[in-house]
Input
Amino acid sequence: MSACNSCVVRTQAMCSILSDREREEFARLGRQMAVPTGQTLMWEGADSMVVANVVSGALKLSTSVQDGREQIVGVVYPSDFIGRPFGKTSPHSVTALSDARLCVFPRGAFDMFARSHPDLEHRLLRRTLDELDRARGWMLLLGRASAREKVATFIRDVAGRLAAEGDAPLTRFDLPLSRQQIADILGLTIETVCRQLTAMKRAGVIDLIGRRGVAILNPDQLEDMAHAA
Amino acid sequence: MSACNSCVVRTQAMCSILSDREREEFARLGRQMAVPTGQTLMWEGADSMVVANVVSGALKLSTSVQDGREQIVGVVYPSDFIGRPFGKTSPHSVTALSDARLCVFPRGAFDMFARSHPDLEHRLLRRTLDELDRARGWMLLLGRASAREKVATFIRDVAGRLAAEGDAPLTRFDLPLSRQQIADILGLTIETVCRQLTAMKRAGVIDLIGRRGVAILNPDQLEDMAHAA
DNA sequence: CGGTGAGTTGAAAGCAATCAAATGGCGTGG
DNA sequence: CCACGCCATTTGATTGCTTTCAACTCACCG
Output
């Protein structure tokens, strides 16, 4: 009965380790849900009511300070997990960057189900450890990298993340984020992001096509820029 | 027989949920170990051979780029967990900031024990989720805060972290880190850290006593500085 | 085909980094 | 106990990258 059988992330999301019977039970706890671009699913500091799996689309995790400065602390893609299990409040906001489909579960029910299915918790633990590694790598970028390094690294990473699992990074693609959002990820201003992109274009490393399109002309040079520039 | 019975972090470390029998079995897998100040226990990118619980002391987690720039991505204290279970390589170096005592386990043995003790894995999951939240909060600081805000936030956080669980933040204490290490945590240079500290002293917010001593004279003003300055 | 908002470019200012030199805390040996 | 030397820290001067403020362009939509 459940939509799981046709779910595109069934094989990669954490539910994949469940048996058919377990997955059916699990599926009954939650429901699919569409989230339009720009909609915020969860607010920083608010009670953590739900957790979810991303089925399609991309969402940002962000925190901000009084005066409007915002920092994006993570971006999640299909098969990624959203929300804060086993905790009272959500430590950051979650907002859709594109129209997205989620598989949403009430937090309480999820917590209980997870507690009684060690394999699922194990899967979640691995995912969380990976996410922690990624966050810490990002900290190096935020704390020690120049604007050039940040932007080059960002382009390279998106190219890798957008490629199908196991494939080589794409050489031509559309950015899933606006310039402002890129700036919020890298801890820069929108103008600085622009200037770096233009400079990289002038250097013949990339090409910019319209608002969102990027072509990587010289991957090696891009790689160099990501490390020191 | 095991040292566990006298272990100072027994009640807070993750081993606390194990039964006496289980803990004995668990203890047989590992051993206590002293790590002198400055010694590196684990190297960035190296095979992840061990995991450990911190019994006493403080250690830093750090990554760096070719040219010597370093970023500290985390600091761990007693009862915290170190290492990368379920993964091939360690994503960052681990170095003792002070003489430390650890309870060390071979990774393989730990992984297997954890897999067969869901309660332990659950505890580890919660710990990892907390750590991820902390890392993301740090990202906001690194990406969007001014030098003043970074240093003020750092002082405030150390005061809180050094106080006994549940107590009010300390008003006079010794920093567990050198100026250079503080700089590496905040993504600043040592000179900038110095200047900010001196400025805060001149402003009457804190006092500096010798190399490591700090007294908080005006907690409210410090709090303000941590948020916007 | 014109409007609108994202994106780009330019000029100037500001903040932290860099380079350089002075100070002082602390351990050591006399 | 005091003098000495080393190294962390502090302070100063200058540079330069990123931000800020402002104007302009252009892609995309109706």
The mean pLDDT of chain B is 92. Chain B touches chain A at residues 61, 63-67, 69-71, 73-74, 84-87, 91-92, 115, 118, 121-122, 124-126, 128-129, 131-133, 135-140, 142-144, 186-187, 227-228 (CB under 8 Å).
